[in-house]
Amino acid sequence: MPLTKLSPLQSRLAASLIASLLLLLLYFTFASPHFAYATDVDSIRPEDHNHERLLERPFLDVDMEELERGEISYEAEFIGVDRGIIGRAPTGNEPKEVINNRLETTNIALGQTVSYIFSNASLYGEKSTTKAFLSPLRIQGRDFEEDELEDDSQESGDLKLKARQSSSNSRTLYISVTACVQPTALDTSIHVPPPQLQLYVSQSANNTNPGPGTSPQDMIELEGGYVMLALNATGDVYFGVFGNNNTQTTYTDHPWEVEIAASIDAPYHYYYDSSDNLSLVDSDTGSALLLAGNPMKLDGDGQNHAKWMDVSTPFSLFARDMSDQSIVGLENSYCAWTKGEPGIQVGSSVAKREVDQLPDEQFYVQGLSGGSKYRAALAMNGNSTSSGSGIVGGGGIVFRATNFSTLSDGNCAVITNLSFCDAVSYAVPSNPTKFPNSTALADFYDNYARQQFGYFQNVLNMTPCETTGSAQYSLARNCDNCTTAYKEWLCAVAIPRCTENSTDSQDYLRVRAMGYPFPNGSYHPDYVELGAQGAFVRNSRNPVIDANVTSGPYKELLPCEDLCYHVVQSCPASMTFDCPLPGSISFNQSYGQINGAFSNSSTGEMTPAHCNYPGPLPSLSAGSLALPSQVLMVLMLVAMGTVYI
């Protein structure tokens, strides 16, 4: 039978089918697939041929204790996606991120390192728009000396810590660390503070956990519990704080309590080491009066007088007994000072000096012990307007600490805040038996001065004050000038400034009341002998002191001669005021002379004055106090001018 002849179309279709069948055959031949098969055995039994392979998977070999401790964590893996993009689970070795102006608090044990990172995103983030009431203190930029920075880096050039380095694409980062509490020696008889904490800094990706034994990095040690590092950064900054355990002394397990912050705006914590900005005005056996330097000298050009006239108390004061060892090694830390002694109370008020009405702040410290030494530090909570985490400069400012002492004798007491003689703020003759508190003593002196001033006003009222300028008693002065000058003089001489008789003899101090007993009724034979030399030595300047106060022997800082001259120059000649001639016995026992070296304009430091002037100015034992160079005035004090003028 002849084969059927296919048409051209049918021929092409047949060829395509044959080719497709051949290709399908070749695919199954070379691919060799494993065909699925069924079994009556449960797939989870060991006999299952896949069971052993499943048991070999890592996630079935997890130690549950390790999982609970977080030592093993699931990390997703996606092909083609870098872990830097999808994120990673944190581990115990990764540094903690610090945010701009955000406070970090932590505990650090001896030998422990705590690591942090200030990220590139925070470094080039937006700066704060808030402004402090007090302009940020100028950072004393300088290159770090070799003894300040120890370079642990083997790769020089990786870390740029020079404060003066700069580049167009870098930003200044301020890292500050303060220790609030430190470990104490296990042996309480050993008064040795632990080693200072150490700050390690790295800008290298090769060292993301800087600390002892790693590199590249730089190290700077805290001083007095504080360090502030200003560095120019261009990316991530890694830093670690190490609890230095390089010591032979055994300490308790109590760790350092630490505050850490970083800022691109200004230091979060600041220690002002150029000055203590504080002076002792006077002290007695249980209290002390201290004066803060005028804040305008820290505020730009110091001309913003109106702003500071309205502010009340920008500063705060901390005081510790010198025997308190808890602050030793932490003197430069604001948070350490806040852990102060509960027995010491500090009150503050604004004192405006009569010289130019500058708004100074004074501190009345109570709860002290007689004949003791104390350490005090002026401070500012935050940046003077706001404080705390998230605030520029929110960690506070502390000034260099200064020391002062209290008196041993009980016959001089500090008084302040008088209503009439409002410029009187110093120690005056006292008797703790008759005047058990300073308020009663202040009222006694203030009322006496007010009474004496009333007699003066009666005389002045007879002068034609309300008249034309040409008809007044002077073309240069008027009755208001006379009233002011007389009040200053009266308060200074009616309320004498007192220091204990055991104070070292100085030619500008005068012994008083040598013929009277001490408040406890006892006499000193040497003082009785001195009292026989004359009335100046035997009695007080003001007779009411011997009659009503009965303080006993003391020494007086004389009022300044200018107070007398101002009365003579400002009041009518008809009132017949006069001053003793310089060099005379009356002058030498009544007034002191202004020391020309009182204000050192080159250093800004104040030399203790040799006489007393209205206003709370430094005493004989005062520390340094920076004042405007135009102020050439001195200490204020008094002595009853009705006896010696």
TrEMBL record:
Keywords: Disulfide bond. Residues 144-164 are annotated as: Disordered. GO terms for biological process: calcium ion import across plasma membrane. Residues 407-571 form the FZ domain. Residues 144-155 have a biased composition (Acidic residues). GO terms for molecular function: calcium channel activity. This is Calcium influx-promoting protein. It comes from Lachnellula hyalina. The gene is ehs1.
